[in-house]
Amino acid sequence: MFENGGPRCHTVKGMNLRQLRYVVATADHGTMTSAAQALYVAQPALSRAVRELERELGIELFARSGRGVVLTAAGEQVVRQARIALEAVDAIEAVTRGQGRGSELRIAATPTLEPELTARLLPRFARDQPAVKVRVVRCDGREAVGAAVRSGQADLAVTDLPVPGDLAAHPFDQREVVLISPPALKLRDPVSPAAMEGLRLIVPTRGTARRAELDAMLGAIGANVVVAVESDERSAWPGWVRAGRGSLLWYRNQVEDTEGLVVRSLMPPVTRTIGLVHAHRPLPQVAREFLAYAKEHGS
Fold first, then answer.
1. Which Gene3D superfamilies did the record assign (predicted)?
2. Minimal CA–CA distance to 257: which of 274, 234, 273?
């Protein structure tokens, strides 16, 4: 940093790239929890780094807005410059990778399937490959995931299959969609689309990728439901189901705490094949290693 300029230069001296990445991710995702998940870091560590940067700069970067955060006027200027700085760093890192130095894996995912990476596959892979830097590229929907690997923004992507033929697909697991309801709801197991007529559901917010996926699935199985709650606060959904506010259609494996809930299969069964996809071009060695790892440990 510049040495002249008095105390202000002194204050900014401690700023580092990690803090800039955390601030940009928080701006992109709207909550520190989502930003931490996307960067594969602990949420308290991200929050602490952002607060430290605010202290070093002497300004407030974010203001609370509902359950999330929004940029302040000063924060918008900082994030704008941080993006420029990080793009330059990424370009430099790309040069070093071309010289055979460094090892980075970039994986794209939708919000729905991001837990497949951050909660299951990446922690195991990171333990076995501690030198690999993993970056999760969060995409708003399947089309954006495909665009990320086609453009080279990501090496691989985790997504529902099938995908267009210009992408190579590697299935590694299958997920069952189930109905999660409060105990007071009396339904047979498995549940038919006809039995779901008028069922009150907790659903993602309209206009989001998750909501589009759910609406498409409901249309495919012919279930006419009633929207009881619209929210993207996924961690709150099980509690709302227990409170009787509605039922939930979700992947069986992504509901960790089923106490006080009733989980039923659908009839006919609704399953999704999950796979890793990439463009038809040579993959970096680390991406090939992760492909092999996912196929072995995905189930």
1. 3.40.190.290, Winged helix-like DNA-binding domain superfamily/Winged helix DNA-binding domain
2. 234
